[in-house]
């Protein structure tokens, strides 16, 4: 047998990457492998959706009629043995082996040599890859090594095919019912008819073209930008009738991007170079969006979506095409499309919007923020869903499970309606808690603050009882400019945020930029951005930027008196020493300039483990501590939660994280330092129980979750959680911790938002 080359393997991977249909992909795999390895048979077996059986999904060499029919249980036959043992099997005479099971429809009796390897992706069995031949001797070691390498390369792709479906379906039982998974945008349940939100012409459809009249094209661009600006200024439409004043700031962010000199200048420059207006627009928007996408921070990455939305609206104006009629029947709608912008939502009466499904976007997009504020369920990034093929279909937006349900069966529809009614009554009942403290039954009080990144986050936080802002991200003004924003520009924004929450405290985090958070006008290239030039390291090395930001925040605090400064990514004592000196000097300078500024409280974020270990030495330079649970978990576990290969290992209930949090709380208490915790952990009910047991008195979380967490805290006794905390100290994994806490949550009646129970024939194949 000829030894296949790694270049051949590369060609296989590249080929299947260009193919979309699952059956075609699998057919290509077995055909290419049989040719490359010079064998008589190559077959691919995949696990069924219930992971109870293996089905022949594709073959070259066995009977084509057996595809989709030949079926083995796990540990049945040679293929089943490979699946059960997760080990390679290389035999010279397969039919003579006791484990061999003959399946008549495959016609495989003439083949004796057999080599099979398991397909594993993220510790999950995907299927089995097999080659066979007529010789009566095992395959050579080189062939075995190559097939193992191929399996490791293909497992991820095949896993995606399983999630798409289409390779194994029971047509008689599905009836159009499908479930599609995405990313959590906003929690809740919504039911309605699918209404497709689609632009006339997308930027992606614009093709290269030259201009014959550059001045005319430049005038058209100027007029289109002005029209979009006017549209945004007055275009709150139906939505504006229901929005609190501060929430209109979401439209203001669009205006800031729209009026950026960089936008118009780059488009004009491309027109001068010979491009027509639409092509110049597309290239400019694509380049600006890519600058945001290069950031690893998901919050900053989400800003690319806003740039694309702005570009789309300019294009709509540019080509002078009317939007489709927005006259809709007076019934519940689930809006679905690629990128549903804030302005798109404004075209619909609020009472008709029962859910939002976006095939692109992220959890931190503006659409998700707005959906959270209005209590509209939203699912983002549903990649396999094609809404244009299902206009008018019945659709469920399940924000709790981050999925949408297409054409639900009658029984499932009834159950979802019951759950929606129950949830509405539940949320209405929580309104009574808005002004009530989050205090346990035995008198332990927890302050609930909110995390924000935009002024528009202020209203939902206040409406849901936020006692202040635990984390305000200040990066956005730096990302939407074509140069570093001035002190005055920053002052204007910070003042609005502080004024909205006064007299409640607002912890403003200084610029967390650098490394993985690239600025379009300040390039930083590093091998390992997570361990690089970022946070306070970047700010101290660019002192003029840090001083301008500190001055802007101090000036914004005048007459509000609720500013608290928060320093990100602290890892050394001298970092806090230097930062405090800069604040003191800024206070002195501003006082001499006639500003009635004050020395605010200064806090540091514990995200880097060294900050936790140096806490006693850092204490003289800080007034409070904020734990960034997302980054601290990431650094403690050495897990990138944005990397799909290891993200399943990211869990803030890992025993090591709990040990670290307990040590931090005890140190802060001994040092008389107030401590708060922000991040996803503050919204996790299992984590909240343990944090309260540890003694944490301040949590910062998303606005939507504040009432739910408040109810949980008011339903428990801290003293009763002491045994739970002690037992958690003995757990060896996050799974054990969650299993330990689950009964306690059930005892206090915590809503788990469980998925409705479905008959087997309705769930099978609905991936």
From TrEMBL:
Domain GAF as annotated: residue spans: 21-172
InterPro entries per the UniProt record, alphabetical: GAF, GAF-like_dom_sf, PEP-util_enz_mobile_dom, PEP-utilizing_PTS_enzyme, PEP_util_C, PEP_util_CS, Phosphohistidine_dom_sf, PTS_EI-like
Keywords from the UniProt entry: Cytoplasm, Kinase, Magnesium, Metal-binding, Phosphotransferase system, Sugar transport, Transferase, Transport
Catalytic activity: L-histidyl-[protein] + phosphoenolpyruvate = N(pros)-phospho-L-histidyl-[protein] + pyruvate
Signal peptide segment: none
EC number: 2.7.3.9
Keyword Magnesium listed: yes
Main localization category: cytoplasm
The keyword Iron belongs to this UniProt entry's keyword annotation: no
Location(s), subcellular: Cytoplasm
Cofactor: Mg(2+)
Record-linked NCBIfam families: PRK11061.1 (NF008283), PTS_I_fam (TIGR01417)
Family from the record: Belongs to the PEP-utilizing enzyme family.
Protein name: phosphoenolpyruvate--protein phosphotransferase
Organism expressing this protein natively: Marinobacterium sediminicola
């Amino acid at each position: 047998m000829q030894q296949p080359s790694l270049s051949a393997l590369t060609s296989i991977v590249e080929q299947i990457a260009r193919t979309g249909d699952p059956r075609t992909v699998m057919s290509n795999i077995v055909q290419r492998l049989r040719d490359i390895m010079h064998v008589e048979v190559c077959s691919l077996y995949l696990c069924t959706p219930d992971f109870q059986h293996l089905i022949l999904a594709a073959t070259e060499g066995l009977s084509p009629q057996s595809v989709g029919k030949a079926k083995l249980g796990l540990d049945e036959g040679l293929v089943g043995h490979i699946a059960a043992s997760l080990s390679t099997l290389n035999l010279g005479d397969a039919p003579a082996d006791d484990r061999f099971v003959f399946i008549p429809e495959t016609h495989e009796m003439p083949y004796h040599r057999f080599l099979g390897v398991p397909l594993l992706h993220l510790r999950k069995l995907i299927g089995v890859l097999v080659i066979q031949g007529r010789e009566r001797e095992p395959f050579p070691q080189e062939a075995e090594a190559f097939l193992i390498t191929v399996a490791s390369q293909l497992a991820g792709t095949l896993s995606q095919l399983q999630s798409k479906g289409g390779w194994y379906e029971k047509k008689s039982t599905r009836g159009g019912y499908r479930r599609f998974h995405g990313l959590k945008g906003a929690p809740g349940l919504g039911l309605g008819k699918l209404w497709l939100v689609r632009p006339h012409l997308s930027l992606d459809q614009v093709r290269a073209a030259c201009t014959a009249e550059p001045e005319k094209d430049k005038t058209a661009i100027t007029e289109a930008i002005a029209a979009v600006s006017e549209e945004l200024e007055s275009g709150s439409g139906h939505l504006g009738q229901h929005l609190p004043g501060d929430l209109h700031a979401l439209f203001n962010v669009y205006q800031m991007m729209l009026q950026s000199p960089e936008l118009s200048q780059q488009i004009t420059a491309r027109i001068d170079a010979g491009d027509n207006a639409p092509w110049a627009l597309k290239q400019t928007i694509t380049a600006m969006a890519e600058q945001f996408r290069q950031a690893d921070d998901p919050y900053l990455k989400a800003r690319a979506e806003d740039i694309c939305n702005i570009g789309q609206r300019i294009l709509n104006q540019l080509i002078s095409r009317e939007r489709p009629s927005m006259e809709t029947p007076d019934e519940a709608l689930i809006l679905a499309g690629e990128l549903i912008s804030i302005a798109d939502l404004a075209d619909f009466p609020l009472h008709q919007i029962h859910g939002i499904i976006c095939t692109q976007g992220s959890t931190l997009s503006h659409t998700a923020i707005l959906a959270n504020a209005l209590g509209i369920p939203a699912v983002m990034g549903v990649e396999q869903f094609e809404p244009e093929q299902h206009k008018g279909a019945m659709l469920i937006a399940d924000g709790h499970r981050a999925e949408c349900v297409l054409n639900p069966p009658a029984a499932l529809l009834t159950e979802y309606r019951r759950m929606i009614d129950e949830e509405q009554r539940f949320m209405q009942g929580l309104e009574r808690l808005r002004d009530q403290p989050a205090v346990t039954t035995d008198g332990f009080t927890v302050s609930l603050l909110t995390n924000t990144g935009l002024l528009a986050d202020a209203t939902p936080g206040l409406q849901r009882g936020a006692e202040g802002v635990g984390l305000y991200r200040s990066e956005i003004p730096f990302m939407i400019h074509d140069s570093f924003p001035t002190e005055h520009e920053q002052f204007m924004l910070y003042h609005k945020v502080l004024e909205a929450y006064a007299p409640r405290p607002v912890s403003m985090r200084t610029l967390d930029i650098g490394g993985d958070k690239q600025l379009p006008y300040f390039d930083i290239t590093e091998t390992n951005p997570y361990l690089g030039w970022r946070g306070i390291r970047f700010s101290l090395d660019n002192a003029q930027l840090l001083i301008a930001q500190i001055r802007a925040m101090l000036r914004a605090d005048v007459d509000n008196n609720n500013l608290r400064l928060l320093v990100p990514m602290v890892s050394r004592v001298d970092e806090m020493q230097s930062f405090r000196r800069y604040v003191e000097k800024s206070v002195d300078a501003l006082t001499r300039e006639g500003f009635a500024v004050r020395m605010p409280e200064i806090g540091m974020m514990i995200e880097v483990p060294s900050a936790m270990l140096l806490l006693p030495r850092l204490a003289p330079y800080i007034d409070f501590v904020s734990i960034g649970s997302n980054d601290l978990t990431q650094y403690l576990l050495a897990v990138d939660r944005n990397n799909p290969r290891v993200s399943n290992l990211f869990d803030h209930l890992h025993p090591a994280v709990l040990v670290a949090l307990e040590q931090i709380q005890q140190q802060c208490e001994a040092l008389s330092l107030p401590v708060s915790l922000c991040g996803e952990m503050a919204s996790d009910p299992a984590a909240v129980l343990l944090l309260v047991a540890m003694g944490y008195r301040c949590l910062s979380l998303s606005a939507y979750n504040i009432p739910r967490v408040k109810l949980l805290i008011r339903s428990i006794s801290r003293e009763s959680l002491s045994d739970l905390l002690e037992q958690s100290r003995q757990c060896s994994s996050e799974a054990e911790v969650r299993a330990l806490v689950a009964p306690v949550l059930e005892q206090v009646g915590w809503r788990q938002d469980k998925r409705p129970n479905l008959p087997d024939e309705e769930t099978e194949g609905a991936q």
